[in-house]
Input
Amino acid sequence: MDFDHITRPLTDAEAKAEAERIIARTFQPEAPVRHMPTSFRDNTPLPAYGDTPPVHQDHKRVVPAWAAGTAVASIGVGAGITGIGCGAWLVLQGLASVTLYGVLMVTLPFAGVAMVATAIGGAFSKVSRSVSKTVYEGPVTQNTQINNTNNQRGMFSRTRNDVR
Output
């Protein structure tokens, strides 16, 4: 092979000859065409009955760790949200079936405890009233003193009322 043209520039005659050679080779009408197969068809006849023998197929699927983790996490989140939704549905179904009698039955023990506590408190109140009766007697003096101070200067004013 001649590699001299790589290290030195071509002369005008060499460049013209190289260009003509490239053009002649490119535009030849009988240029060989290479046909590459893009598909394959097996024309062997299929058996009329019975099982077809297995054909080995390479299976090399590579899943990144982050993709597998994301898939597992999304399944877990979906299952958790479904559980929360079912729980909310059950609570709302229970609240939808509330009746007045149901509310009264639930609050009846609380009302009974409150009634007993009120009765005991009333009994203690009567007992304490009969034991101690304090009456205060004496002069009462009431003094009321009002101081109004008004300071007005310019457009700002302040009024202060002290009641003692």
Observations:
- The mean pLDDT is 80.
- DSSP finds four helices and two strands in the chain.
- Residues 61 and 68 are 12 Å apart (CA to CA).
- Strands lie at 146-153, 156-163.
